[in-house]
Design goal:
By secondary structure, the chain is α/β, with parallel strands linked by helices. It is 38% helix and 22% strand. Helix 7 packs antiparallel against helix 9. It is globular, with a radius of gyration of 20 Å. The structure holds guanosine-5'-triphosphate (GTP) and magnesium ion.
Length: 308
């Protein structure tokens, strides 16, 4: 048998879905595993709105990590679609990471645990419990938390990590690489995501908006790349639309003398420039569109189901 065929037989390929309550650090883990920022991260809840895919290769394995919106009690239509998107990834996943945050009580992770109890049908062998944010807790508290988690989660694999500083992530990465099934790689070796740049760029703008704005406003907006043009000098002109529901929100978002929008634009432009390795001209417009969060086109852009 020649070497090429051997390689094909031994190669592994699999999907790993990361689920957990909102804000536990799922996107931070995805970025750490891939070694590059793909999924936006903020201190605020409900940051991720759709499924984000990151791909890494280790030895003979190609692992596709699926970062999902957090599991929370949905109120509006968009929330329901986000939570449904998170659960839907479980069906196709070869391994499922359920992420908990150790700096909170086990009860505050309860919503996801309750759902998991209802989903006992999940094959125990597929389930990996990852306890994150260990950098924030004392060792004795951590052991206590771990015991509580063991009693509640139907899994044999428990990992203690800090997705922020990388503690424990290497072991988790090896575990994922070793435990996905045999299969042919579906992506080229150097591909790290399948999300188009247009969407990645609009997510970067949304991250900056979420960081700069307070209270409810971060949840009341959407960002869309309206146009993307390569210019003669090899730079790129990107026009973004930010949708808000009310005129008052537009005023707050822009800030006095445009201070907010300038700050957001500067931060986002730099990050998009670094991502593309090209000079970027970024224009951000704010548009009042009542009920943008019920607009089927927005759901479509994010790959979310409209009626769930
Ligand atoms: N101290 C500490 N903070 C962390 C760790 N992992 C994530 N964080 C922080 O927790 C916050 C939420 O992180 P995200 O990665 O956005 O969490 P998420 O689970 O993707 O959140 P949603 O997308 O909103 O569901 C951010 O401020 C992160 O910097 C960790 O290991 N230690
Ligand atoms: Mg996230």
């Amino acid at each position: 048998m020649n070497e090429f065929i051997m390689d094909k037989i031994e190669s592994k390929f699999g999907y790993v879905s990361v689920i957990g309550a909102t804000n536990v650090g799922k996107s931070t883990l995805l970025n750490n595993l891939i070694g590059q920022k793909i999924s936006i991260v903020t201190r605020k809840k409900q940051t991720t709105r759709n499924k984000i895919i990151g791909i890494f290769c280790e030895k003979k394995s190609q692992v596709v990590i699926i970062d999902t919106p957090g599991i929370f009690q949905p109120k509006r239509k968009l929330d329901r679609a986000m939570v449904a998107a998170a659960w839907s990834t479980i069906n196709d996943a070869d391994l499922i990471i359920i992420m908990l945050e150790a700096n909170k009580t086990i009860e505050s992770n309860t919503l996801i645990l309750k759902h998991l109890k209802e989903s006992r049908s999940i094959d125990k062998k597929k389930l990996i419990c990852v306890i994150n944010k260990i950098d924030l807790v004392r060792k004795d508290n951590l052991l206590y938390f771990m015991n509580e988690a063991r009693a509640l989660i139907n899994s044999e694999e428990f990992f203690l990590i800090s997705a922020l500083n990388g503690d424990g992530v290497k072991d988790l990465k090896s575990h994922l690489s070793n435990n996905i099934p045999l299969g042919v790689w579906l992506y080229p070796k150097d591909q790290i995501t399948d999300i188009p740049y247009r969407l990645l760029a609009s997510e970067i703008v949304r991250e900056k908006l979420m960081n700069v704005l307070h209270q409810e406003l971060p949840y009341e907006l959407a960002v869309e790349t309206e146009s993307w043009n390569e210019l003669d000098d090899n730079s790129i002109r990107i026009d973004m639309l930010v949708y808000v529901n009310k005129l008052g929100q537009k005023k707050i978002l822009i800030g006095s003398n445009g201070s907010n929008i300038k700050k957001i634009g500067t931060m986002a432009r730099k990050e998009i420039k670094d991502m593309l390795g090209k000079n970027v001209h970024l224009f951000i417009y704010v548009k009042v569109q009542n009920n943008w969060d019920n607009n089927p086109n927005y759901f479509k852009t994010l790959g979310l189901k409209y009626n769930v």
